[in-house]
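Contributing new records

If you add data, match the layout below exactly. Sequence lines come first and carry their own label; structure lines follow with theirs. Keep one chain per record. Anything else will be rejected by the validation script.
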Amino acid sequence: MTVREPQALRSSLHSIGWARLIAAAMVLAAGALLRYADGFHFDVLPFATAALAAGLISGVLLVGSAHVIDLQRFAWLQIYVDVALVTGIIAASGGPRSVFTFLYVLTVLEGCFLAARPGGLAAAGLAGFLYVTVVLGRPALAWLGMGAPAEVTALQILTVFLNAGVLVAIAALAGSLAERYYLAQRSLESQRRDFSDLQAFRDLIFQSVGRGRPSSAGRWISRRCGRAWPARPPSRLATRSACAATTARRCPWASRSGRSAPGAERRSV
């Protein structure tokens, strides 16, 4: 499972909290408009209660996201709570005939945004199970003799399972994209830190060479190369002496005669 940075996850929770509040207000306004246009043929009180409860819980989660310590568990709690709130809104607005079924897609995308593929699949699985329970719960209770008779058509049953399959497909696709995005972001952040460390290391090397005394970079190079870092930069005289000694070892006849190599004059001409 992809683990996000605490600061980034807290920022995501804060943004989703505001988005949840806006969505709850829009759902309540949409229900009022449908009621005004005679397009809402169900009881308004349960729907209004579910929408107001969603707004209240969204405010509580928004405040809690700024003070909670265990952000991973809090993110998973938000995913499950949002799926339950959407199920309540759908059940209060007609169940299989509800116009707010698309809210399940938002919960799946939220799961992918907070916990990548595992979060999306968990949200899709829970949403599909609760949606099937809402649509087929009353007929099942009536069949068991524990409730009033309720009619359900084959088209509604097919629609329920198709919606559940679509939610799982969306979760798999969006979760895969979210995982790749977070892995790429983490890789870029690691490379940026390595590049910053390399720049700082280069500056230490140049400072140690310019000041003529070993620094932490010099000591690190000494340990890596197995050679001692000079206490001060060599002078010109020492450099010339070293060059003369090297020439004497490689060309002993030049140091004895004081002349250049045979044929050097011809090559120079």
